[in-house]
Amino acid sequence: SFPTRRSSDLELVLVDGVGPDLAEEMYKSGFTSLESVQQSSVKALKAVKGIGKASAEKILADAKELVIKE
Predict the structure, then answer these.
(1) How many Å apart are CA 23 and CA 10, to the nearest integer?
(2) Cβ(50)–Cβ(25) under 8 Å?
(3) What is the pLDDT of residue 54?
(4) Which residue, 5, 9, 21, 18, is CA-closest to 60?
(5) pLDDT value at 69 more than 80
(6) SS3 36
(7) Based on the number of CB atoms within 10 Å of its own CB, is 44 exposed (0-12), middle (13-18) or buried (19 or more)?
(8) How many other CB atoms are there within 10 angstroms of residue 36's CB atom?
(9) If you average pLDDT over residues 35-48, what whole number do you get?
(10) What is the Cα–Cα distance from 22 to 41, expressed in whole angstroms?
(11) SS3 for 31?
(12) Are 63 and 38 in contact (CB under 8 A)?
């Protein structure tokens, strides 16, 4: 059976390069929203299973370009 997806995981997949599995790992590591990624650092993102330095830099840059409409 598949783990239950949270609505916040779906928000994380808006970031280029983040699929459902990576979103789940990010969620487990404390990245519960797009805003939490935007306010993060490459070092913090690298601590997530499956994210290396290059991926962390790309995820952070892409996340900062996204603006959630209020």
Answers:
(1) 8
(2) yes
(3) 97
(4) 18
(5) no
(6) helix
(7) middle
(8) 18
(9) 96
(10) 17
(11) coil
(12) yes
